[in-house]
Design brief:
The chain has one helix at about 1-50. It has about 50 residues and is mostly helical. The longest helix has about 50 residues, at about 1-50. The N and C termini lie far apart (about 70 Å). It is found in: Cell membrane. One of its GO terms (cellular component) is plasma membrane. GO terms for molecular function: ABC-type transporter activity; ATP binding.
Length: about 50
C-alpha cells in the first residue's frame, strides 16, 4: 500500500514541479538577460577605468 501511495504522490508532484519551473524560467529569463547586460557594461567601465 505504501508503494502505491508513494507512486501516486510522485506522479502528482513531479509534473507540478516541472511546469512550475518552466513558468518561473519564462518569467525571469528576460530579467536575467537584462542583469547580465548591465553587469557586462559595468565590468567594461571598471576595466577601462583601471587600465587608463
Amino acid at each position: 500500500m505504501a508503494e502505491a501511495l508513494l507512486t501516486l504522490v510522485t506522479l502528482i508532484v513531479v509534473p507540478v514541479m516541472y511546469f512550475g519551473m518552466k513558468w518561473i524560467t519564462k518569467r525571469t529569463g528576460r530579467l536575467f538577460k537584462e542583469q547580465q547586460q548591465y553587469l557586462s557594461a559595468l565590468n567594461g567601465f571598471i576595466e577601462e577605468s583601471l587600465s587608463g
